């Protein structure tokens, strides 16, 4: 059996998912700063952080997010390179790309270990570090709901303008419009 086929299939799967991994880069510094402030407020509230915990944890979390974003960008660059050169890459280059992806993912795992199991536990009680996993998940869902609500509002305005007010439309998947630094938002995800 040809071993090139599984490697190419895996790479093609990654390439098919590439559009979902790409995020809009047109956000202004003010929007990024507002995003950071909103995230901090959400985390302060949901984790019930004291002022001292906030001062210690939030800059640490920001550093974690920045490092995680850099690794995410490295991974995306590999995918972009493969997408642009898919017809010109041989089996060895495809294997090399897969190996580089694995190395970046290993670094992502090591980063999670470093921050969650070492750094965060130095500044927060372990119960809050454990709760952080849920808060991050809930925050992603919160962002997706905001996107969905904005799209629903835009759809409603369009229906009023077109005279169609039928609300029995099938739910549509949420598109990846919102840059969420360091967060992996799945394209086409339905929300309840």
What percent strand? Answer: under 5%
Radius of gyration: 20 Å
**Beta strands, count:** 0
**Mean pLDDT metric:** 78
Order of helices and strands: HHHHH
- Uncertain stretches: 17-26, 165-192
Global structural class = mainly alpha
Number of helices: 5
Euclidean distance between termini CA atoms: 44 Å
In this structure, how is the largest beta sheet organized?
none
Note the overall shape.
Answer: flat
> Helicity range of the residues?
over 70%
Describe the structure concisely for a colleague:
The chain is built from five helices and no strands. It has 192 residues and is mainly α.
Description:
The protein has 5 helices and no strands. The model is unreliable at 17-26 and 165-192 (pLDDT under 50). The protein is flat. The chain has helices spanning 4-21, 29-47, 51-84, 91-123, 126-162.
How are the secondary structure elements laid out?
Layout: H1 4-21, H2 29-47, H3 51-84, H4 91-123, H5 126-162
Protein traits:
single chain; about 190 residues; mainly alpha; 5 helices; about 75% helix; disordered C terminus
């Amino acid at each position: 059996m040809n071993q090139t086929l599984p490697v190419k299939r895996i790479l093609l799967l990654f390439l098919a998912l590439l559009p979902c991994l790409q995020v809009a880069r047109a956000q202004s510094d003010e929007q990024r700063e507002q995003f950071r402030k909103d995230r901090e407020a959400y985390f302060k509230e949901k984790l019930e952080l004291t002022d001292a915990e906030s001062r210690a944890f939030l800059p640490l979390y920001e550093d974690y997010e920045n490092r995680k974003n850099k690794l995410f960008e490295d991974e995306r660059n590999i995918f972009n390179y493969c997408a642009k050169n898919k017809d010109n890459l041989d089996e060895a280059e495809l294997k090399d790309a897969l190996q580089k992806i694995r190395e970046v993912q290993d670094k992502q795992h090591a980063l999670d270990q470093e921050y969650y199991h070492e750094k965060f536990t130095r500044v927060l009680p372990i119960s809050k570090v454990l709760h952080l996993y849920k808060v991050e998940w809930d925050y992603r869902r919160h962002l997706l709901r905001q996107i969905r609500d904005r799209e629903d509002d835009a759809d409603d305005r369009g229906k009023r303008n077109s005279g169609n007010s039928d609300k029995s439309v099938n739910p549509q998947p949420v598109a990846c419009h919102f840059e969420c630094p360091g967060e992996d938002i799945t394209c086409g995800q339905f929300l309840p």
